[in-house]
Amino acid sequence: MSVSDPDPLWTTLRLVLVILSLGLLAFGVRVVVSRSFPAAWVRITRMKARQQSQPVRIGGGQALIGASLLAQQAPFLIPMPTPAGGALLMLALLLAVAAAGWYVWRSD
Questions:
Q1: Model's pTM, two decimal places?
Q2: Distance between CA 73 and CA 81 in Å, rounded?
Q3: Which is nearest to 23 in space by CA: 73, 62, 80?
Q4: Contact 76/13 with Cβ under 8 angstroms?
Q5: What is the DSSP string of the chain?
Q6: Which residues cross the membrane (predicted)?
Q7: pLDDT band of 64, cuts 50, 70, 90
Q8: Cβ of 34: how many Cβ atoms within 10 Å?
């Protein structure tokens, strides 16, 4: 499957997932680097005080999940050999496990 596939629905869904994963990755990195959540985000999500005190833990997990989703979609949108696509899918799985490990290991 690639961007030139005849089924536009799957291509559109994959591109939307790529855009969302890029947003999740950028938001997670921003939260980790600044060590604080945006005020609008706190108001919209109604975060509890305990969650607000853990920006590195939550932001790092979000960034890893965004990177995992991005790596998962790359073989379907970019033409590449099968072994490289399999390696990217394994990397996506590793990043998803790393996100869970990060959330458990990191106790701010």
A1: 0.74
A2: 14
A3: 62
A4: no
A5: --TT-S-HHHHHHHHHHHHHHHHHHHHHHHHHHHTS--HHHHHHHT--HHHHT-HHHHHHHHHHHHHHHHHHHHHHHS---HHHHHHHHHHHHHHHHHHHHHHHH---
A6: 12-33, 54-78, 84-105
A7: confident
A8: 12
